[in-house]
Amino acid sequence: MASKGQIMASSKAKKSSKSDSTADDKLAKKTAKIAEKARKAAKAEVKKAKEAAKAAAEKAKKRAKKDAAAAKEKAKKDAEKQARKDKKAKKAAKVQPERAATPAEKAEVAAPIKPVAPKTAAAKAPAQAAPKAAPAKSPSLATLGTPTDKWTVVALRTRARETGVTGYSRMTKAQLLAALR
To answer: Residue ranges per domain, the chain?
Structure first.
């Protein structure tokens, strides 16, 4: 039979093996809890990262929309500004119609140059003593009568325009004289 000391040692061994298994169970449970917490924390961090990425994508999408709208608005303003500039340039480029010259003014331009006769000494003296008179107006083409060979081509073309001759700008002096007689 077993002695009392052996029984006690055996009972201690049973208790210690029982306590060892209980300690192992406790350690395993504790480790499992820690692992579960770590897994939950990792899962929460992944969820947060996904949400942050989604928010960043939304923000980028909104920013892109805003930038596109701003670019479209800028292009519209630039187009309007260019249209205003073009309108101003077109308005500035318009040539104001010239005032039509009167027949008397046309005659002054087209009147033939008359030769001046040399003055004698006797004729010069009264001209110097007399006060200067206002210059006489040149007669209009209508009062000059029929055109002669002494008329310039410019004067003949002016008369042709006044009388309604067509094609006068391409005519020679002889053709103009023939058309106006």
So the answer is: 10-91, 140-181
